[in-house]
Each structure stands twice: as C-alpha cells, then as structure tokens.
Amino acid sequence: MKVACAQFCHEGDRAASLDKAIEWMARAADQGADLIVFPELAFDFFFPQVRADARYFDWGEPIPGPTTERFQAAAAHHKIVTVINVFERAAPGRYYDASPVIDADGTLLGVSRMLHIAEEPGYNEKFYYWPGDTGWPVHQTKVGRVGVAICYDRHYPEHFRALALDGAELVVVPTATSTSAEAFMDVWEIEIQAAAVANQIFVAVANRAGIDGELDFFGRSFIAGPRGEVVARAGADKEELLLAELDLASLEEARRHLPFLRDLRYDLYGPRQDR
Asked: The pTM is what?
C-alpha cells in the first residue's frame, strides 16, 4: 500500500481549498498512491479556535453531502482511497468532527466521528462537537483495513487498541495540531510510535500547515510502522505531499516476534469491585 499524507494549508475559503485538495488527489494518484488522508478540517478556517460562536454551526453539512460527494467522484476518477475530515451536521443541533472514508471506486464506506473532545486554548471544541457515537469502525478498503483516530483521539491508547483488535492494518490520523499545543509537540512522534508498536500496525498522521487565524500549524506529518519506526516524515510549517510505501506483510512478521496482542489478559483488566 502506498500512502499519501496531504500536509495541507487552508486557502482562505472552502471553494479554493477544495479545488486544491482535488488537485492533490490527482498528484498523489499520479505518483502511485493507493490512499490519501487529509488533515482535520483542512478545507475551512479552523473555527474551534474561536470560543462559542454559534455562527459556525452554519458551516456544518451532512454526510453524504456536497463535500463528501465531490470527493467520492474524485476518488472514483483517480482510483484512490480517500479519507477527509469535515464538520458534520448529523441532525438539528447535533454536530460532529467526522471523517468519511471513501473507497477507490467512490463508495462511501462509512464515517468515523471523533470520540474524545478537547477543551483548551485554541481548541474550544466542546461547544461545537458532540462526542462521537460511531465507536471504532474498521473500513475494508480496496487496499487494506483502515481505521481512523481524529486529532485528540490519538492521545488515547485504548483507541488504537480497539481498532487493532478489530483488524485495522493502517490507522490514519487527521489532525490540526499547532504550536499553541506545546505539550503535544513534545510527544508528537513518541505516542504514535508507541501505539504502532504496541499494536503492530501502521499509523499515518496528516497535520495541517501554515498560519490560520491565531494558530500556527506546524506540519511534521509522519508515518510509523509496526515496530515503532518512523517510516517517513514531512518537514515543518509548509505544505508537503508525503508519500511512503507500506509493506502490509510486515505486520505478520512483527506480530510473530512481538506477540503483544496474543498475550493480552482481558481477565485482569476489567473493573474490580474491591477497588
């Protein structure tokens, strides 16, 4: 599987950003990519940096909806599995940070909604998002079994474990991580490498780049392998289409020598009444 992480800058309006994203899909496909993942809310101003402004609810759209359907058409045209991230309006007053997963023939395979919702400077997300209710779906794409961990979800080892136990070979992480989240910068690669080796999976992190409002998204998208190694790494601050060839057969080899999933002890991890 050849994976592309679109380290993407918002163009100032949705229409221009969408046009650019479709061009990047064509570029990725021309370079042999089987799958492309875009960052969190890549096609809009990152509005969660604004505290409690109800006007942004007007930006929500259904899935399927105009944005998803446009990417479905492009995915089918370029024959590339595509994971995007949008502000989903699921019902009146109910909104999610959501990632549609689109197969290489344009089929909408499903939607993963962000389960863990942040609330901190620059990320006032609890006002805008409901906690996700999709659980941990693993999507059977043309090129492999793909799970999603959206931005803040990546800080929870349980999220990766649930996806791995359901058969994920690759977990993609659409994120919008900025220099304001200094503590996250310190563990930017470490926690993903730990998740990859603990579950013997590939993890591809696609971050935004550039300044958007008050936030400076630092890029540094990367892909980690099943032994915790960094397979590929993008530069900081500027746009980049990061591509890497992933050998899914190496998951078998890693799990033979690092049988962490085999040796799980669920009988020990449940709640105890005497605690």
From this structure: 0.95
